[in-house]
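User: Hi! I'm working on a homework problem where we have to compare a predicted structure to a textbook description. Could you give me the structure for the chain below?
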Amino acid sequence: MRNLILAMAAICSVFLSAYVHSDELVVYSGRSDKFVKPVVKAFTEKTGIKVVLHSAKSTALVNKLRVEKERTQADLFLSNDAGNLQVGSDLGLFQPVSTRVAEVIPENLRADDNSWIGLSARARVLVVNTNAKGLEFVGSVFDLADPRLKNRLAITNSTNGSFIAGTTVYMEKLGKEKTVDWLKGIKKNAGDGVFNKHSKVVKAVASGKKDVGLVNHYYIYRHLAKHPDAPIRIMIPDQGKDGIGVAWNVAGIAISKYTDQKLLAEKFVEFLVSEEGQKLFAEVNQEYPVREGVAASAEIPALSQQKIADVPMSELGKKRNVTIDLLEEVGMY
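Assistant: Happy to help. Predicted structure tokens:
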């Protein structure tokens, strides 16, 4: 009888172990499913490892991880914003990816300790109506504060993650005083042109209701895919010898500190930073791959044509609260 009990206990232990360490990963994803599922499908087909997506806003998921701690189901956290990734890292919610996996991504596009890794990049650009007159003076994001653009500007509200990240870059490059003046200027110029989505900014410019807008680059190409004759064009700001460079932000991924699937989780990250994974992850949203040597979509401006602001992506999280305080101080919408 004793031997039977021991045998049954051993069998139960095996089944429990198999359940706990099953080939399945849970990803808290702050990126739209339609942009993640193609790469998840390719990974599962390649490895047999199932990936379950729990999707919500990146900020909400960071807060969820913070509250759950060791009780979390998440093996990984995927964010559409470097700021939230760094916040999670500062809260001690992640564990470093191995150097072998991380080192294929440039240092300025990942955490200092490799606790998160950038996967794809977006540029903060201007969408311009091609029929608009008197925009010859616009070459910098800071020109959007010029009084000549009164009621001609479209922007997102300042709670938008990309708005916050872009403002952080501008403050890092040109300081608080100039950034405050810029914010006050664009607030005046936007008037009724403050929207809750980038797509609405592009639509307002395409319809002629506004002449210029501040958006992530891929929203322009999404609109043109549906409306190829729309009178809009992209302008990459702050180029040239004296320009600060265009502001970047990255989507990225981190491994939960509390996962018991570290090896499988790292295998998923390794696939995402592989040449195959990079092409899939970036191309579906027309973003820029962050691994060198992987070409971006031919439809978007080549990186060789751009000067990029030299602000490490980790700063978008480290300075996030400072930026939010500044936006509240100015009274941005």
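For your comparison, note the following. The domain at 122-247+320-330 is CATH 3.40.190.10 (D-Maltodextrin-Binding Protein; domain 2). The first strand starts at residue 24 and ends at 29. Good luck with the assignment!
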